[in-house]
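Entry:
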Amino acid sequence: MEKNIKKVAVDAAKKAGKILIGKYKNFNRGAVKLKAHHEILTKADLLSEKIILEEIKNSFSDHKILSEESGQNKNHSDYLWVVDPVDGTTNFSMHNPLWCISIGVFYRDKVVLGVTYAPILDELYIAEKGKGARKNGKKIKVSKYTQKSLHTFCHGRENKHFKVALKYYTYQKLNELDCRQLGSAAIELAYVASGRTESIMIPGANSWDVAAGVLMVREAGGKVTDFKGKEWTLKSSNMLASNGKVHKELLRVIKRK
């Protein structure tokens, strides 16, 4: 990984986060716009994206960037930055603190750095390939639980994604300790990595929502696959991340007819 990539990613997340805290405290939900079915957009998303992209371009002008709001640039590089300027925009709009900034860096299609920053929670998660995962500088590990497990879920924007998620939620709610949708896939992945929950499943997973968190879970000792049990990649259309110990059983639940 090129020198200073981690510093630029962390600095960009913190710089955007500092601005977003002020926007969050004074946010008026009437200002939101619908960008797609069940998806909203705020000026805060666009402002955060502008700050982060400028930081990246100032240091690595030749790198590829894929961002939720701007899409992908036309650069040719072995490096790809995958950015979600505000993951959990709906939470942000309703003054729920579970939102964050998510930045994942790929080298030749392999994720090598993940940064997730939740400003209101004051939690900074960093994962480096081969170097583990940390929250506010302290090493984190997935849980060891197989019983009384806590699961979360998210979903893409299509009706077929809703149906898979609802079916899964219903089964888990009736058979496990609990299953919840927290509204920020990046935070939910960080929770799996830090042992707060045992899993998150996402039909229709967007790469910008999960890029950083995928590495987070893997470096914390967990497992991340698609619904067929194959290793998650940028081309995967769905995702299951867990502590590894409950993974096989969760894949079975997902595949239930």
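The chain has a mean pLDDT of 93.
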